[in-house]
Specification:
The chain is α/β, with parallel strands linked by helices. The chain is built from six helices and 13 strands. It is globular. About 35% of the residues are buried.
């Protein structure tokens, strides 16, 4: 079985900067890491591979050339192959255009049984790309997966996290699964894995390689646009109420009344 993992390289959460002119994240010269939720997707794909016969894990990422580093990290963890989808024509893609492009890459890989994704990316927090890919591929999807109870060539039985608990879902293959952090604990790369990743060839697929339609990729193919993005101003210092509970409650009620009525 061919298992595909979709990963994204994102700015380190401690070093996120916004370009006020383009309203996009500054990526040049910024420390980047694999999207944290994608690490759980990688780990779960590897665990499934270890349970199946003749399984192969292919990790796929769409991004600038520097995203190759993320693919090598995934290979060092145990993934078999890495593929980078990169082209200036993809610049400005929203979640719809991104999911279309990734689905084209998955079709090119072909013959897959499972697609794993993290539940969302830390830089956008939309949780739309995984489900969008499943729609473009016309395959079932199960989101917020917290446990895989069983899986074979015929189908899978998984636990899907909900606000009240979890649902047990049975699905045929192929299927796309988005996972939450409760599903596992990602492994660390081994020395042997790091050496293999360093030597691995990472093919780069362009829009032409994927036979993408020009009106479905990049900024022109994106039905949504970011009009404005900004960093919220720092909060001003508040007031600490001290004293006995009845006294402070009365003061607090006064502040609330003043804020509402004026």
């Amino acid at each position: 079985m061919k298992i595909i993992v979709l990963i994204k390289q994102v700015p380190d959460t401690i070093d996120v900067k916004i370009d006020p002119v383009t309203n996009t994240l500054k990526r040049e010269g910024v420390e980047s890491v694999i999207n944290p939720f994608d690490m759980y997707a990688i780990e779960e794909a590897l665990r499934v591979k270890e349970k199946l016969v003749d399984a192969e894990v292919v990790v796929l990422s769409m991004g600038p050339p520097q995203a190759e580093d993320a693919l090598r990290t995934a290979i060092s963890m145990g993934c078999d192959k890495g593929i980078l989808v990169s082209d200036r024509k993809f610049a400005g893609s929203d979640t719809w255009a991104t999911s279309y492009t990734l689905s084209q890459a998955i079709k090119k890989i072909g013959d897959f049984g499972l697609v794993f994704c993290g539940k969302q990316a830390s830089d956008g927090d939309t949780a739309q790309v995984g489900p969008g890919v499943s729609v473009h591929l016309d395959v079932p999807q199960v989101t917020y997966v917290k446990k895989i109870e069983s899986i074979d060539a015929a189908g899978a039985r998984v636990e899907r996290m909900t606000e009240e608990g979890y649902d047990i879902v049975e699905t045929p293959l192929p299927v796309l699964l988005t996972v939450v952090k409760e599903i596992n604990e990602p492994r660390l790369p081994s020395l042997k894995g790091k050496m293999r990743a360093k030597k691995a060839e990472i093919p780069v697929w362009t829009a032409e390689d994927l036979n993408c339609l020009e009106d479905k990729i990049g900024l022109d193919g994106s039905p949504t646009r970011v009009v404005k993005i900004f960093t919220p101003p720092a909060r001003k210092g508040g007031e600490i109420l001290e004293g006995e509970a009845p006294e402070t409650a009365k003061k607090l009620a006064g502040f609330i009344k003043k804020a509402i009525i004026g």
